[in-house]
Structure formats: C-alpha cells, structure tokens
Amino acid sequence: MAISSFHPPRRTLMGPGPSDVHPRILEALGRPTLGHLDPLFIGMMDETKTLLKYAFQTSNELTLPISAPGSAGMEACFVNLVEPGDKVLVCVNGVFGNRMIENVTRCGATAVRVDFPWGAAVEPAAVEEALKANSDVKILAFVHAETSTGALSDAQALCALAKKYNALSIVDAVTSMGGVPLLVDKWQADAVYSGSQKCLSCTPGLSPVTFSDAAVAVIKARKHPVQSWFLDMNLILGYWGEGGKRAYHHTAPVNALYGLHESLVMLQDEGLDNAWQRHAAMHGALAAGLEALGISFVVKAEQRLPQLNSVYIPEGVDDAATRQYLLANYDLEIGAGLGDLAGKVWRIGLMGYSARMENISLLLKALAEAMNAQGYTCDAASALAAAEATLA
C-alpha cells in the first residue's frame, strides 16, 4: 500500500503545549532554506539572540536557542553547571521538579529534595531552611511555572535565596516566558531555560536558554568535561558567539529558527507588558466561564499561572471521554492530568496565539455540550456571558 502525503486537520490547541501557531510564523517556516553558515542566516542568528535577550529581560552574552525542545534546554543547564559530587537543592511541586532530580542524578551529583504539595507554589521559607541545613549546596533549582499543575512560584524570592547562600540558580521558565513577568537580570537568575511552543506561539523543537556571567565562570572552571557533547556550551559558543567567523558545531534547524525569529519579532511588536496583560485578561475570562460551569481550579488564585489552567473534573464526568468528544466534534485539544493528578484534572492552555476570546468561547460551548451529554447539567450561554463580562 502506498503512503500519501500527510495533511493534518486544523486543531485548536488549548492543552499544555504546543499552543496554536500564528499564521505569520507558519509563513516564516516556509521561506527558502539557507545554509547554516550563510552570512545572511548568521545575521538572523544575531537578531534572534537580541530578541531573546528582550524576552528574557537580560543582557547575558550567553543567550541562545538550543536546537532541541525545552527538555534539552533543561539538560543543557544541568550538564553544564553540575559536576560529579556536587550537591543540588531541587524544589519539587510537580512533574517537572522530578525531572530536575533525574538530571542531577545522571550528572553524578547529589540531589537534596524539597517537596511541596502539587498545585501549590514553592514556599521560600521552606527552601531557606533547607539551604541553612545544607551549606555546601552549589545550585538551587526550581520550576517557575509548573506545567503539570498550573502553579506559579516566586522566582525573584527564590533567586535571592540562592544568592544569599552562595549558590547558583537554575530556573525552568518553559511555560512562563512571554506569559508572565520573567526578569532574569533583575531577579539575578543564573541559568534559565524555556521552550518555543508555549507562550511564544512557535512550533515545538527549540529551547531558549540564558546563562549569567557567574554561570559562565562556573562552566569555564569545570574539572570534568560536560557529559553531553551536543549540549556543551563551550563548543556551542563557537557557533552562536558574537560576530566574527562561526565554527561549525551542528547543522542548525534553519527554518525552525525562522519561525522563532518571527515569533520573537511579534513579541517585541506587542510588547512584553501587553503580552503579560493579555494572558492575565484571557485567564480572567476563562476562569469566570469555567466557574459558571461548576468547574473549580486546582491552584488558588494568588498562585495561579494564567496561561496554564488546571481544573478539577466534575464528579460523574469522564476525563478521556470528554477530551475525545472535544477532539472529534470540535477539533479542540485540552490536556489530561499528569502524575498525582492523572484522571483528576484537565489542563487548559491559554498560551500565546491560543490566548484569544474566540478560543475561550469555543471551549466553553464545547465543554458544556460534552459534559451535558454525560448527564452533567450546565449552561454554556451563562458561562459565555460570565466570561465576556470580565472584559467589559
């Protein structure tokens, strides 16, 4: 049997990522491919670094997109900064804190684990107690925006604690960049990684990272080689360094970088403050609509991430059946719960281009219909009116 070309349907993506990709970015992806050492492409690389510095709010020289998804950005931060025998304090309040633990262990280091309830933010006071009890900690690692729960932690306070106790900080900003304030220099964060497919509305497959001067000094003073050749910043710098001749390291994903460049131009044109305000406003509308349907949130309002909404599945409503109904009847995707929350919650994304009122209206209508079909009683019109009232 002959296999023909793949033509996917047009979905509305309101899960934990990827988000809807803006048409401008899709157009950028289809532009003519240049060689990865072409002078014009190298000029675009420099622009991408400048745009990423704006998105991160940093002047860090070592700021670039890793040619792989956010998980590789996470690994890049750990393998470059962590050596065998080091001690790393890791805050765990969801799935992605656990992944940090995995990285520490694979680097041959010791992970000091500080746990918090899933759905709650990391508590700085508890972190400080752990730092006092472990004076030889080299790095404090935490998730700014925990994608598995929708909890937003106080990155500024946690980075300040790292400085107070002479440790570096590693910050997971995969879901926060472009959606909520992320102020790398002001907060004195040392190593921060993100992803292209969340609030930047780009396609999956790239991971912006940034390293402070203090982090770069640690990388350069390593006693052991970085365990990953591909993610060794000492080598990548030869390709992504400022100006001059670029040393071949790997064949960059040229067209994917066109898309990231376009997404960052769009973020620059909208303005970070406006992007943060848009995500907050759309979250307010979604929250009002969901609450009108009788759906409650996992995370309390003051710790809630606006672009990733974890909500409890109402009693009597089937998780998988509802998500399948949305996909089959409305080409609409929302996410399932992970880990301890699997089967108990839905994760609804409002990231980047997905953070639009038309998406919220579609979701409220489709979700009400899907739940009513299972015997749950709710009114889509009332939910939509509640959502719209927040924007009036």
TrEMBL record:
Entry annotated with the keyword Transferase: yes
Cited Pfam families: Aminotran_5
Aminotransferase class V domain boundaries: 39-337
Cofactor(s) this protein cannot do without: pyridoxal 5'-phosphate
Keyword Transferase applies: yes
Membrane-spanning intervals of the chain: none
Keywords: Aminotransferase, Pyridoxal phosphate, Transferase
GO MF term (any one): transaminase activity
Protein family membership: Belongs to the class-V pyridoxal-phosphate-dependent aminotransferase family.
Protein name: Alanine--glyoxylate aminotransferase family protein
Native source species: Zhongshania aquimaris
